[in-house]
Amino acid sequence: MALDKATVTKIARLARVRVAESDKDGLAGELSGILAFIEQLNEIDTKGVEPMTSVVAMPLPRREDKVTDGGKQDDILANAPEKTAGFFTIPKVIE
Amino acid sequence: MTSLTDLTLAEARDGLRAKKFSAAELARAHVDAMIAARPLNAFISETPVIAKAMADESDKRIARGDARPLEGLPLAIKDLFCTKGVRTTAASHILEPFVPTYESTVTQKLWNDGAVMLGKVNLDEFAMGSSNETSYFGPVENPWRKPGDNKSRVPGGSSGGSAAAVSARFALAATGTDTGGSIRQPAAFCGIVGIKPTYGRCSRFGIVAFASSLDQAGPMTRTVKDAAIMLRSMCGFDPKDSTSVDMAVPDFEKALTGNIRGLKVGIPEEYRVDGMPKEIEAIWTKGAEWLKAAGAILKPVKLPLTKYALPTYYIVAPAECSSNLARYDGVRFGLREKGEDLTAMYEGTRASGFGREVRRRILIGTYVLSAGYYDAYYLKAQRVRTLIARDFENAFKEVDVLLTPTAPSSAFARGEKTADPIAMYLNDVFTVPASLAGLPGISVPAGLSSDGLPLGLQLIGRAYDEETVLRTAGVLEQAANFTAKPQTWWKQ
Amino acid sequence: MTAPTPALLKGATGDWELIIGLEVHAQVTSNSKLFSGASTEFGAEPNTQVSLIDAAFPGMLPVINAFVVEQAVRTGLGLNAQINLRSVFDRKNYFYPDLPAGYQISQYKQPIVGEGIVTVELRDGSVREVGIERLHLEQDAGKSLHDQHPKLTYVDLNRAGVALMEIVSKPDLRSGEEAGEYVKKLRTILRYLGTCDGNMEQGSLRCDVNVSVRKPGAPLGTRCEIKNVNSVRFLQQAVDFESRRQIEELEAGRAIKQETRLYDANTGETRSMRSKEEAHDYRYFPDPDLLPLELTPDFVARIKASLPELPDAKAARLEKELGIAPYQARVLVMEKESADYFEAFVAAVQKRTGKAQKDIGQDCANVVVTELFGALNKDSKSIESSPISPTALAGLQALKMDGTISGPTAKKVFEEMYATGKDASAIVEEKGLRQVSDTGALEAMVDKVITENPKQVEQFRGGKETVITFFVGQIMKASRGTANPAMVTELLKKKLAK
Ligand SMILES: [Mg+2]
Ligand SMILES: [Zn+2]
């Protein structure tokens, strides 16, 4: 299925990636090409086939309920582009 | 005596223990080679000071008679493994300033076993690519060129820096990661050995995620024995990774008996794809003959869904990547582009922080997961994935290991495939199926193309049966007797 | 299931029926977070209870907390719900600064707990069964502080990754009162189970309310989701406001827009949330970092066997085995701590007096509900901070029951105990409050009061027998309540009849 400019705008917004207006047509073309390629899968009958949820056949490991982490505010904030008084800071969010 | 950088990992290990040279000397030789090889652009961050300190510690250990399995051996680390105090970029602008305060499990295991870090090597941005041309830090040069031709060849990807470093002999070995072929294909392009173990063997903790259900770390070395040695150090259960398998790690080196008498080797007919170069077919046939000559039994097997593996992969991997890369939002680490409000900050940061291929995959992944399309694309792909895994299960009822080419061509010229994403994706046509099924796969250098570039053969094994894969690879290696080396054109 | 009695709302165009469903987010009681080893403690310095996993650093991976899984199963069993032996964790993808990974790990198509039932008693004594649609586990988000700086929002991730149970009801509720009682009941059950502390002020229990209206019998109307409702009182206010708003809209000929609205506790109103206007597409898919969660029937059976007695069962037992009036039984079980207090009290009284619980239960209930709860309420004190322990109160009760003190004296001693924390017998001894049951002493008091009040004696003998209460009162007053009132009455009758 060909992907149009409006759809590019929509998914770019969902993915929070700015796409220049001038780039949208080109991108729509590239993405449509990829979609056409992956749509080969429609040739396969998958009725009644369970989707793979994991390649590993084992039970989900569970850990003990112990406090083993935290107390490292410095590490948490070490790479922050902006911080103040132990908080990350960002442009104000208006609710 | 051969130069220190020409030693294999095993030879260097034994030489250090026999005190033929010191770890400091070994490290210095590699650091010098690394600096000399800067034209290859294989490193994003060189860490000579760390290498020196680690080597000095190794020399003390060796003097005490307290050497660990990888004591004093200089390695290159793909810049996708988080290394404490050392910048880790995933070859992306968005992580350009990022310095982790933590160490990945795999690299920690290597350091615990005494290995020495030379630096962090280049890759395709976030491991997305098959030619190492998507790196924010520029493309990596393949050390190999056609004789008499100075055109740049790609090293393959995404572990292109790792492959180049090992091939050009400025690291004894390197870590790689493989999501759809990112260890095996560059290994083939650069004439080295690369093994992707079974999904779950190596911990993913601390490795920048691309596609979680596919990502696996593995070693890239010049010999099968080196791969066995290094893989043993990298593997093992990690309680910090819920998909890590709690299973004993075999002594892989011991598996290299050289004996494959009676071993059943499957030749999957579907890997004979349209337009495959004659010399790829020829090397494949040769490989089969070598194994047969060593006592293996060849059997044709059917893997009917092979052609659908790539389209499946290009749904599953982008879907997972679109979600895995959402954390790069400019809030807690990495790049932030200022914006008048939060959305502007997000969109600006992610538009300028991610390169074109990464953005393309994020958008495709977002699309295939979005409302109304999930069932048609993502769910469909996961169902096909089940069928692909089932194909392999059926094949492994009849054979012990599969032999295929690693890639459909030798290393291509830089820029040759950047304009057409699908042409680029087709590079992974032989490596992606095993990735989808989580199976171990190795690429072994098998010969040179008519124009003098390396060609690799792939062996795929049963889940957790790396031993058979390595044993067979050892036989293949011996028969191929691949001794060619790239010309050191970068030293002029 | 009981058909809901439609509590209809009057509008200009006739009656309207109100339909309410609730999504309750309950913080799971655990030491560490759902997928990391960071602490869940409330009120720490910003970003000090954060692991690299919670902050979604590159390469970080989730590992599930075994105890949280148990807590979810325990809760499911407490809600009479189906436990799903296989459940799946999904990623819910959206961008928000307090959601570090850009996705919340939640359960979408296959939750750990399926359908269940909660029984809710209403003020008029009627009982309503409210259907539970599902319960799933998910991560809490961090906290954004918008009021610290004119141009910046501050982000604290201490809460990010704390385990929540999202408990979704069916649209079975028909009034603000019902919704409120449902939340109270849910809270009681969670607290009995020990799976959530139910502290609404600290955000351990938060409600999103779905409200719609319709003409009785008509199909369901368009609903609005109200966020940020963090007390039972606000819940009722929000429902009242929102239902009136919707009726006004519809009666004015306007359609209801399906949207998320925010409850403003200051105005008691709900308003449209600007930021939520953008249509969300969460792109759920199974989290590839986790495997499906599989439980064995044994595991579930083991948790079932360890469940405490829940409020409904306890109230029924108090009624049946201790003969306590239904209303009082319900009051006693409302808080687990109150029920625990009461049961310890009854047991202590039984030990002291040797009497069967059935014979002492109702009187004990009266003391606790009327005296103790009354006093605690007046001081806004919780049962845990009661100045009188169950054993101390049993001491008082025993003195009353064996006749050492009279009923009125017991009330006085109670007040003294409550104020000073002193022991009942000490107070009785100190103040000489022992009940006088000695016939000689009582006869003297009776004779005295008869001699001193000839007029009233005349009245009695003239046939106005009710005047006897005057004499009893005089004697009780003179004896500071220590005279045994029953014996005094007997003696008076005998002497006045002469
Ligand atoms: Mg919800
Ligand atoms: Zn929720």
In brief:
Chain B has 492 residues and is an alpha/beta fold.
Give the distance, in angstroms, between the N- and C-terminal Cα atoms of chain C: 67 Å
Q: How many independent structural domains of chain B?
A: 1
| Helix/strand/pairing category of chain B | alpha/beta
Helix content of chain C: 40-55%
Structure annotation, total helices of chain C: 15
**CATH architecture descriptor of chain B:** Alpha-Beta Complex
**What's the CATH topology label of chain B?**
Amidase signature (AS) enzymes
Q: Provide the CATH top-level class of chain B.
A: Alpha Beta
Strand content of chain B: 5-15%
Q: Could you characterize the architecture of this molecule?
A:
The complex is a heterotrimer of chains A (95), B (492) and C (498). Chain A has a domain at 5-43. Helix content of chain A is 35%, strand content 9%. Chain A has 3 helices and 3 strands. In chain A, helix 1 packs across helix 2. Chain A starts with a helix and ends with a strand. Chain B has helices at residues 9-17, 23-36, 48-64, 105-112, 160-167, 184-190, 224-234, 278-293, 306-324, 342-353, 356-369, 375-398, 421-425, 432-437, 466-480, and strands spanning 43-46, 74-78, 116-121, 173-178, 193-196, 216-221, 264-268, 297-301, 401-405, 441-448, 454-461. The model of chain B has no long low-confidence stretch (mean pLDDT 97). Chain B has 15 helices and 11 strands. Chain B starts with 8 loop residues before the first helix and ends in a 12-residue tail after the last helix. Chain B is globular and about 65 Å long. With 492 residues, chain B is α/β, with parallel strands linked by helices. Chain B has a single domain, classed as Amidase signature (AS) enzymes (Alpha-Beta Complex). By secondary structure, chain C is an alpha+beta fold. Chain C folds into 3 domains: 9-304, no CATH class; 311-431, no CATH class; 439-497, Arc Repressor Mutant, subunit A. Chain C contains 15 helices and 17 strands. In chain C, helix 6 crosses helix 8 (357-378) and helix 12 crosses helix 15 (485-497). The model of chain C has no long low-confidence stretch (mean pLDDT 92). Chains in contact: A-B, A-C, B-C. The interface between A and B is large, with 52 and 72 residues. Strand 1 (62-63) of chain A pairs parallel with strand 3 of chain C. The complex binds magnesium ion and zinc ion.
